[in-house]
Write the structure tokens for this entry.
Amino acid sequence: MVFRRLSIIPSMHFEILVEDASGKIMLETLVPRILGPKGKPHKYRIINIQELKHRTMMRMPRQLARTLPWDAILFETLAQQLKGYGRSLPPDKGAVIVVVDADWHDPLAFRQQLEDLAVPLDPKPLYMARLAIEEGEAWLLGDPEAVIAAYPFAKRYVLEQYEQDSECGTWEWLADAIYKGGSDHLTAIGYPEIGRVKCMWAKRISPYIDVETNRSPSFQEFRRGLLSLIPDTTAEG
């Protein structure tokens, strides 16, 4: 009798919590290229942290919600979510991945703060924190060919001068490359227009991104981390 070795990859469910609406749009395109189509074999849900944060603020006294810094609300929101996942998502069945912008934080220290949120939990979920450095737009700029494919009129000299994952005002850099009037014009308009435009960039550029060759170290750290959560077992039969 000949025994054949079969590779079996158990189905996992991933809860991916991302910084904002534009990040969700981007990952809805990129995650299937990393994990494969939804349900084949893995399932995943991508959640906008901003929506969760608003729910957290609604439960707080109004004055407190207005005065707390963003990080404090973020940590409170994630702590509550992780507590729930610890009860509902067994580590052998799924994992939680949080993706936020590094912004002005020290990346190593900020990531450690995020990962420490799960330390006191019992039960605790399988959990990983990842950062977009400096901002989510760094992952779009990580594939300049994708930017040009989406925006053929992009200023290539601006894209060429970008230092990947640098602290430079990342979304502004992308705006200077592809937005009429550049970042100065968009900044003058302000929010919510900035958010709308960032969502448009994510929607248009993401379909062209090559996840394996993307030049953003923080994106590749996210990609490798996501893949590392998939158990790989073998069975003989």
